[in-house]
């Protein structure tokens, strides 16, 4: 058992887990022969199984340290004292001896992480590490998104609001980005927002940007180095879809529409707002009701049996939703660009960023993260789109080693990570492997 005091030497959750996984790896190599060939713990990456065991080991030792009294009560089968901070949570122990939120939410088809999140003491250093980890995963967004990501990962922080709040207050990147931490506010609801419809049936559209990208000179002159993004936001599920366009032209815009329809299926109505960025964009795109270019777009839309509605001018209450969405997207992107070297921003990197922005936005909780142990689930647009719940499913049963899966590729990725090349993409993928 590792003493939880030692965890305070770590400033990152991922390094803590890797370090403990290495310990487990070494400890095991004494008792049983290691499967496959082991080149020593400092070269061999811990397996998925070892990482999972490390997480269990870390959380168990923290819980044993902070909740010794409660664990004694549970072992004896006696009720918790009402002075305990876990009293309301009706904790139970899982097969790994981890304390989880109890309650009677044994819904079919959901795994333990969703219905019974793991309890983490809010004052412990581990809680700080977890908040940092998931705050970075949602690209330094506010308390609401951070809290949602932690819950989606299957953790229940005791005193989450205070813990997250104080950490965000001290976050250097957040301060760099916007001076003070942001809080989300609800926008007014247009009529379509209240209708029950499949995702992306009623869609709001807006254009934002531009960004300068690095582009090579081509033979016939040089390529346009500015890029814009078209954001489609679903009125009912509040999910978003972003397409990058190479020019503010009708053909680029129609291409974006075609890509959107191809991926998300046909929409019934597209709505644009006069009070947003679309005014400027529509002038450049010549999206006037009477202009020939708009008729081109309308002709295409009519083949998809879709209509385009312009919000009346001065009806800014209807466009609140758009402004808000674009605001979130820009903040997430700002954080990504802050980490990225400006001179490396190519079209490909920008489109990758946009996909990541979409993923973070669609993972945001639609309703406040509940502090009711009877309903620990969070609801996100991504769940409505994919019908999958937040946390990743458990790995398939059986023993899979890197040795038998993709040894050569893995070595290449590792050598790239260590040599620091391709920082922007490989290091990100590298962390997601761990
Ligand atoms: Zn931050």
UniProtKB/TrEMBL annotation:
- Enumerate the spans annotated as Integrase catalytic domain: 194-389
- Signal peptide span: none
Any one GO molecular function term = nucleic acid binding
Q: Which domain of life is it from?
A: Eukaryota
Any one Gene Ontology BP term: DNA integration
> Which InterPro entries does its entry note?
Integrase_cat-core, RNaseH-like_sf, RNaseH_sf
Regions that span the bilayer? none
The name on file for this protein is Integrase catalytic domain-containing protein
Its source organism is: Merluccius polli (Benguela hake)
């Amino acid at each position: 058992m590792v003493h939880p005091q030692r965890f305070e030497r770590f400033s990152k959750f991922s390094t803590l887990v890797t370090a403990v996984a290495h310990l487990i790896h070494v400890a095991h190599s004494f008792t049983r022969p290691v499967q496959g060939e082991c080149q020593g713990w400092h070269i061999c990456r811990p397996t998925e199984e070892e990482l999972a065991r490390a997480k269990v080991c870390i959380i168990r030792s923290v819980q044993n340290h902070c909740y010794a009294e409660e664990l004694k009560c549970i072992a004896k089968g006696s009720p918790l004292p009402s002075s305990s901070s876990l009293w309301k949570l009706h904790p139970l122990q899982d097969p790994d001896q981890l304390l989880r939120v109890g309650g009677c939410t044994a819904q079919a088809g959901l795994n333990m992480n969703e219905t019974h999140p793991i309890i983490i003491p809010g004052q412990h250093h581990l809680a700080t590490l977890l908040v940092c980890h998931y705050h970075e995963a949602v690209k330094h967004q506010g308390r609401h998104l951070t809290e949602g990501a932690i819950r989606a990962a299957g953790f229940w922080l005791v005193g989450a609001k205070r813990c997250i709040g104080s950490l965000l207050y001290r976050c250097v990147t957040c301060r760099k980005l916007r001076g003070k931490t942001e809080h989300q506010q609800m926008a007014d609801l247009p009529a379509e927002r209240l209708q029950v419809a499949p995702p992306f049936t009623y869609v709001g559209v807006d254009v934002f940007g531009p960004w300068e990208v690095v582009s090579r000179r081509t033979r016939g002159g040089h390529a346009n180095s500015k890029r814009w993004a078209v954001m489609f936001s679903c009125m009912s599920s509040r999910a978003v879809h972003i397409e990058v366009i190479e020019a503010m032209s009708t053909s680029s815009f129609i291409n974006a529409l075609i890509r959107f329809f191809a991926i998300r299926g046909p929409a019934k109505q597209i709505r644009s707002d006069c009070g947003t960025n679309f005014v400027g964009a529509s002038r450049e795109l010549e999206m006037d009701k009477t202009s020939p270019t708009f008729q081109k777009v309308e002709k295409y839309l009519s083949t998809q049996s879709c209509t385009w509605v312009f919000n009346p001018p001065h009806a800014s209450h209807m466009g609140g939703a758009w402004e808000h969405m674009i605001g979130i997207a820009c903040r997430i992107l700002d954080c990504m660009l802050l980490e990225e070297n400006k001179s490396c921003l190519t079209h490909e990197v920008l489109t990758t960023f946009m996909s990541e922005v979409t993923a973070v936005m669609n993972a945001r909780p639609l309703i406040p993260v509940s502090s009711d142990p009877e309903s620990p689930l969070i609801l996100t647009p991504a769940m409505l789109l994919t019908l999958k719940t937040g946390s990743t499913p458990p790995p398939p049963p059986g023993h899979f080693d890197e040795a038998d899966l993709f040894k050569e590729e893995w070595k290449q990725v590792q050598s790239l990570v260590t040599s620091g090349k391709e920082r922007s993409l490989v290091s990100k993928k590298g962390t997601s492997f761990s």
